[in-house]
Design goal:
Chain B: Residues 3-78 form the Lipoyl-binding domain. The complex is a heterodimer. By secondary structure, chain A is α/β, with parallel strands linked by helices. Chain A has helices at residues 9-17, 69-94, 108-117, 131-136, 141-149, 158-161, 172-190, 211-222, 242-245, 253-257, 269-287, 314-321, 325-335, 341-363, 372-375, 383-397, and strands at 35-36, 50-53, 56-59, 123-125, 199-204, 227-233, 236-237, 240-241, 261-265, 290-295. A six-stranded parallel β-sheet of chain A has the order 1-9-10-6-5-4, with helices on both faces. A two-stranded antiparallel sheet of chain A has the order 2-3. In chain B, the strands form four sheets. In chain B, strands 9, 12, 13, 14, 15, 16, 17 and 18 form an eight-stranded mixed β-sheet that branches. A four-stranded antiparallel β-sheet of chain B has the order 1-8-6-3, with no helix packed on it. Chain B contains twelve helices and 18 strands. Among the domains of chain B are: 2-79, OB fold (Dihydrolipoamide Acetyltransferase, E2P) (Beta Barrel), CATH 2.40.50; 335-550, Chloramphenicol acetyltransferase-like domain (Chloramphenicol Acetyltransferase, 2-Layer Sandwich). By secondary structure, chain B is of the alpha+beta class. The N and C termini of chain B lie far apart (119 Å). Chain B has helices spanning 123-128, 173-188, 194-197, 255-264, 282-292, 322-325, 333-348, 361-372, 383-397, 441-456, 462-465, 530-545, and strands at residues 3-7, 17-23, 30-31, 36-41, 46-50, 55-60, 67-69, 73-78, 351-359, 403-405, 410-412, 418-424, 427-429, 432-433, 470-474, 493-497, 501-507, 510-524. Classes of the chains: A alpha/beta, B alpha+beta. At the A-B interface, helix 1, helix 2, helix 13 and helix 14 of A face strand 5, helix 1, helix 2, helix 4 and helix 5 of B.
Chain lengths: 406, 552
């Protein structure tokens, strides 16, 4: 047998895969003129926020709430608290109290900005990283950890907060969000007195490659569904850089579906909030979906089970630290005299109380009885489930130990 | 006051063990919740572990450099307060109460709480506190531990012990150790009864608290054969280097490459890796295979496991390792058929071989003319065509060479299925041209073309190889002058002809360059005597010397 008879495709494909064309036109990122921002990396607040969207110039200035000190301080407080929550959760995972943790550090601006733009009647569909959005929707931080401690499949009642359960299947929530938005449309027809509402689908640059995103955008455009697609482009789909996911800025993809796409500096919480408020209003008023690409950076690992130092440069991480969403708002608040040391110290105390309570709550989370699972299959007793429950009890009784993990 | 132990957590998804790389605290030192206590290395990364407790470090239960299983207690912390009475594991929640009772030593030295980098309350400090793992220094493909799910221990299953009729009942923790592990051993290693009871708890040299003995039962190492291996003595770090004689499990390579290596019988550990991640690529493998000289013949299959494992280990001199010097190729397929046929022929038919040098210059001239002829346009013409035609012609004049020995009778055929020996991708094949005696020269040329193309493509069908009556082998195609061919079983003669090349030849007393070949053959002496074989070969030779005789 000679060499030509052996398949050779693998290494050829390998060579191709290892030389992705990273010179992607128009995706030079944060420095891109098309990336909207109003709060500079130096903490200076610009005066205008306009962009050309779908052929017309949109002025986002009416949606900017930068002259309200209390509002800016509350944006900072939310970002700060959720970062402290994130750090405590990471520590809890490292101490064996959580099976896994999905850090959000670096994406606070995108999450708090967009979350705070939502109105109570709007409905958010998160991935598994939207801890900041959860905070803005009033979800108890400890409840977010119940899933990661493995004591529940959910953690909160989505209907209480209009914040859906975390979706672990990549991009599936985009379909849910569009379906929900189409439902909102029909509710509105049946009962015009309802307040106009929109849904918002969170997803990442990695999920943007999923077919679900395509399908949901097609349907959203076709039916002019009141939905905002909020893509946090945090540069990394675990270990795959976003330059491999797309040849054009993700926001440009919206043009292909026929609705507006806007790229915003995801680390500029003020700009994110303004753009999202505009987009939600656009959706609620019947003008159809909007895609927002929040250009940001995952400063930590994808999850606690991965090690980003193995696939990205520490120089990149260092550069992005200068764009920290908290840092620039803190600089702005301090330099304009809107906040002083007392404010930040107060936040620290608040965070300590929060993380202490969080740890206490996690450690005291009741371990559910496995038998409860059988009760949630059917609404009413079912002979097959009863049979399986009996088998399960017999099986459990056969162990010599009590099965408790120390 | 309460002594609290911290068990090694699974910091990744499904990790089963980790190595303590470095301790950052020492006994007697005060720690606060979330203070970094040590650095561990898992199969995935280096990770800093933080303390879940506040208090004074009482004891480090594992020394740095040790690889331990998830769930093993690694540190005990004296929380320096009255026993909370119940609610185990909630000690961390009272981190703010920094008041220490008497005798708690330096436990209040640290600032209360002590969440890293937060007292400054600035974003910058916050960003610095981001938990980013330290880069792992390991080189891919060398001594790195197994990736998750790929290593021998990554998927080891801990089985909860089942009640047996004799030892039912929970028992005390210490008594429970033996009763828990024994049934598991009996189930998982039926062939080694010595495992079941000869592993005292004392072999668990890892410091353990009584409540934890069940997490490191001796019986879980179901893949280890010897009793001494089955104790849960902490595995020294050097065991993470590639094990000698492994099937390349620690060598990085993609699954298709592994498959190909397995098919080729090559141990990936022997193949120099050039992949960007230190992995063995398909090109590396094929290059290695070619250097081994394994590029021809049938597909070598996997190396027998009986090859001594130690000599295949990386680091030994590859040039002299037996794994390279002796390759074991199972005999099957064409190889097996050829071997059987050759043995049957060589040891049943007494072979007599004869040779003669022939001036084939006119044959070469004839071939040249045929090639130029419009009639033969698109047909490959070679000296083999003339030899084949000559053999058919000579066999007609000497019918006894076209026969079969039948013990008590000789079957002389009045047809000639002319076999042509061919080296093919599948090995030696001898397809034959049926009723070659009826073919014109051009038809014979077409038949030879068809036969050669089919054989080269490896598409020769069994039917094409059956029923042969006389064979020609063109050893000249292999660059040889002559050789003693072995008769195809069932036949009594085989004609071999060597290279045709210019040699000095005496013609009319002058030495002139002529196209010379050596014609020869082997004959079954039971049927063909020397005289007959000589006449037959002479007839073939005469055609090569003067193809015009074919017009006869």
């Amino acid at each position: 047998m000679n060499g030509s008879r052996l398949p050779t495709a693998e290494f050829e494909a390998e060579d191709v895969a290892r030389s992705p064309d990273v010179d992607v036109a128009g995706s030079s990122g944060i420095d891109d003129a098309d990336t909207l921002h109003i709060l500079s990396e130096q903490g200076e607040l610009g005066s205008t926020l306009t962009a050309r969207v779908g052929g017309e110039v949109v002025d986002f200035s009416p949606y900017v709430r930068a002259d309200d000190t209390e509002h800016l301080r509350s944006l900072y407080r939310d970002m700060y608290l959720i970062r402290r929550f994130d750090q405590e959760s990471t520590a809890l995972q490292r101490q064996g109290q959580l099976a896994l943790w999905v850090p959000l550090t670096g994406q606070e601006g995108a999450q708090i900005g967009s979350g705070r733009a939502l109105q109570p009647q709007d409905y958010a569909f998160p991935t598994y990283r939207e801890h900041g959005v959860a905070l803005t929707r009033g979800v108890e931080p400890a409840d977010l950890l119940r899933l990661f401690r493995g004591v529940t499949n959910g953690g909160w009642d989505p209907r209480e907060h209009n914040f859906h359960l975390y979706t672990l299947v990549l991009a599936a929530q985009c379909l849910h969000a569009v379906g929900y938005a189409m439902g909102l449309q029909r509710d509105q027809l049946a009962e015009p007195s309802l307040p106009p509402a929109a849904s918002i689908a969170y997803f990442g640059d990695g999920a943007s490659s999923e077919g679900d995103v395509h399908e949901s955008m097609v349907f959203a455009a076709s039916f002019k569904a009141p939905v905002v697609f909020f893509c946090q482009n945090n540069q990394w789909a675990i270990s795959v850089p976003s330059t491999v996911q797309t040849r054009v800025p993700l926001a440009q993809r919206a043009a292909g579906y026929g609705f507006p796409g806007i790229r915003v500096d995801g680390n500029d919480v003020v700009a994110v909030e303004a753009v999202t408020r505009w987009a939600l209003e656009h959706a609620r008023s019947g003008r159809g979906p909007v895609l927002i690409e929040a250009y940001t950076y995952r400063m930590s690992a994808h999850t606690t089970a991965d090690d980003p130092t193995k696939y990205r440069l520490s120089e990149d991480e260092r550069q992005w630290r200068t764009r920290d969403p908290l840092l620039r708002l803190e600089t702005h608040l301090r330099s304009t005299g809107q906040a002083d040391d007392a404010f930040f110290e107060g936040l620290d105390a608040q965070a300590r109380t929060m993380t202490t309570g969080l740890r206490e709550a996690v450690l005291s989370m009741p371990v559910p009885d496995l038998e409860d699972r059988f009760a949630s299959v059917y609404a009413e007793p079912h002979p097959l489930v009863q049979e399986e429950l009996a088998f399960f009890r017999e099986y459990q009784a056969g162990f010599a130990d009590d099965g408790q993990v120390s | 006051m309460t002594l609290k132990t911290f068990d090694l957590p699974d910091v990744g998804e499904g990790l089963t063990e980790a190595e303590i790389v470095e301790w950052r605290v020492a006994p007697g030192q005060a720690v606060a919740v979330n203070d970094i206590i040590c650095e561990i290395e898992t199969a995935k990364s280096l990770v800093e572990l933080s303390s879940p407790y506040e208090g004074t470090v009482s004891e480090l239960l594992v020394v740095a450099g040790e690889t331990i299983e998830v769930g093993t207690p690694i540190i005990s912390v004296d929380d320096a307060r009255e026993s909370p009475g119940g609610s185990a594991g909630s000690g961390g929640s009272q981190q703010e109460s920094s008041g220490g009772s008497a005798g708690s030593g330096g436990s209040q030295q640290q600032s209360p709480g002590g969440s890293a980098g937060t007292t400054g309350s600035s974003s910058a400090a916050l960003a610095d506190a981001i938990d980013t793992p330290v880069p792992a220094p390991d080189m891919p493909g060398e001594v790195a531990g197994p990736l998750v799910g790929s290593g021998p221990k990554a998927d080891s299953v801990k089985r909860r012990p089942r009640k047996s009729s004799a030892t039912a009942g929970p028992g005390t923790p210490s008594a429970g150790t033996s009763s828990r592990t024994t049934p598991a051993d009996q189930r998982t290693t039926p062939g080694s009864p010595s495992d079941t009871s000869s592993t005292p708890a004392g072999q668990h040299t890892t410091p353990v608290s009584p409540s934890d003995t069940s997490s490191t039962p001796a019986g879980q190492h179901t893949t280890r054969a010897s009793p001494s291996d089955s104790s849960s003595t902490p595995i020294p770090a050097d065991q993470r280097t590639p094990r000698p004689g492994g099937t390349g499990g620690r060598v990085l390579a993609k699954p298709p490459v592994r498959k190909a290596a397995r098919d080729l019988g090559i141990d990936l550990a022997d193949v120099p890796a050039s992949g960007s991640a230190g992995d063995v690529t398909k090109q590396d493998l094929l290059g290695y295979r070619d250097r081994l000289g394994g590029g021809r013949g049938s597909v070598p299959q996997s190396v027998s496991p009986s090859v001594t494992p130690s000599i295949a280990s990386p680091g030994t001199d590859r040039g002299i390792s037996a794994g390279d010097r002796i390759e074991r190729i199972p005999v099957k397929g064409v190889r097996k058929a050829t071997a059987e046929a050759m043995v049957r022929s060589a040891f049943t038919a007494p072979h007599a071989s004869i040779f003669v040098d022939v001036d084939a210059s006119r044959t070469m001239e004839f071939v040249r003319r045929l090639k130029a002829s419009r009639d033969y346009e698109g047909i490959r013409v070679s000296p083999l065509l003339i030899v084949a035609r000559a053999v058919i012609w000579a066999a007609a004049r000497n019918p006894a060479v076209n026969a079969t020995w039948g013990d008590d009778e000789i079957l002389v055929k009045h047809f000639l299925n002319l076999g042509i020996a061919a080296a093919t991708p599948r090995g030696l094949m001898v397809p034959n041209i049926k009723d070659a005696q009826d073919l014109s020269l051009k038809e014979l040329a077409l038949a030879l073309n068809e036969l050669a193309t089919t054989a080269r493509d490896g598409r020769t069908q069994p039917a094409q190889m059956q029923g042969g009556t006389l064979t020609v082998t063109n050893i000249g195609a292999l660059g040889l002058d002559t050789g003693t061919p072995i008769i195809n079983p069932g036949e009594v003669a085989i004609v071999a002809f060597g290279t045709i090349k210019q040699k000095p030849w005496v013609v009319g007393g002058e030495v002139v360059p002529r196209w010379i070949t050596t014609l020869g053959g082997s004959f079954d002496h039971r049927v063909v005597d020397g005289e007959l074989s000589a006449r037959f070969i002479a007839d073939v030779a005469s055609i090569l010397e003067e193809p015009a005789l074919l017009l006869d």
